[in-house]
Write a structure and sequence with these properties.
Elements (H helix, E strand, L loop, with lengths): L5 H4 L8 H8 L10 H8 L6 H8 L1 H26 L8 H4 L4 H28 L2 H16 L10 H6 L9 H9 L6 H15 L4 H27 L5 H29 L1
Helix pairs in contact: 3-8, 5-7, 5-8, 5-12, 7-8, 7-11, 7-12, 10-11, 11-12, 12-13
Length: about 270
């Protein structure tokens, strides 16, 4: 991974030029035009910092890998919750599962991507040590992957809780979740669960929110390995992979517990 500074390669006046950015990234034709967060990084000369520059080099590949990961996990999430259903009352969704499935999978993939962007933000911050730059990098990756700019969630508690956050792109909503969902130790997972429930069932059903909340933990753990691969170029160790498998096993055990608990109350 290169460490050259953009400011060493180009005059300051050219920092916001798309061709200059593409040359710096070594990604001619692979950078989506109109990426305002990337422009902001260049205009603020943050792209010239070696740590930020290193992360920028990996941006196109990181966007491709994370969005593909999000699509895969969206399919897994849909099959687990909509088609199989850990709770008995979700079985009714089986018959209607194929109806609108491509549309729901697309929405789920975007929600999964938003969740993985919280991982990307954290890892980019650890790498470059600049909070503002890490935030812009996460927004730039969102746009590179989807063509969408980030949204700002409402600040009011009631308005936030009533907002269909699965329609809001980016990581800002997860920062807001930590302030609004103080009842849970995993506010990001709870918000993700609400989004999954809204997409699959059209409402906030605890029968979907809770298992999706559990699912968010191994999902983010595996996303961390994907992000670190793009940042450091190193494959995950056997211990890393074992830990992720262990988290998925614990999730499955938790889902079985939910299923058995529900059966005990309904029989």
């Amino acid at each position: 991974m290169g460490t050259a500074k953009l400011t060493d390669l180009l005059p300051v006046a050219e920092l916001t030029g798309w061709r200059a950015l593409e040359d710096f990234l070594g990604a001619r034709g692979r950078i989506r035009p109109g990426n305002r967060p990337l422009e902001a990084l260049a205009a603020g000369r943050k792209a010239g910092d070696s740590g930020v520059g290193d992360v920028l080099y990996s941006l196109p590949d990181a966007a491709n890998l994370l969005f593909e990961y999000a699509r895969r996990e969206a399919r897994r999430c849909y099959l687990m919750l909509a088609c199989e259903g850990p709770l008995g009352r979700l079985r009714a969704l089986r018959a209607s599962a194929p109806v609108g499935r491509p549309r729901k999978l697309k929405k789920l993939a975007l929600s999964v991507l938003d969740l993985t962007l919280t991982v990307y933000f954290r890892e980019a911050l650890d790498y470059c040590g600049d909070n503002d730059a890490a935030s812009l990098l996460a927004d730039a990756l969102l746009f590179q992957a989807t063509g969408s700019l980030p949204h700002t969630p409402p600040e009011d508690d009631l308005a936030f809780r009533e907002t269909q956050t699965h329609k809001l792109r980016g990581v800002a909503k997860y920062g807001a979740a930590r302030a609004h969902f103080v009842h849970t130790k995993n506010p990001e997972g709870w918000l993700f669960g609400r989004e999954v429930s809204e997409i699959i069932a059209g409402c906030h059903s605890i029968a979907i929110v809770t298992p999706a909340d559990l699912y968010s933990l191994p999902l983010r753990a595996q996303a961390t390995l994907v992000v670190r691969l793009t940042l450091y170029g190193t494959a995950p160790s056997e211990e890393d992979i074992t830990n992720v498998h262990r988290m998925y096993a614990l999730m499955s055990k938790g889902l079985r517990g939910l299923t058995e608990g529900t059966r005990g109350t309904t029989e």
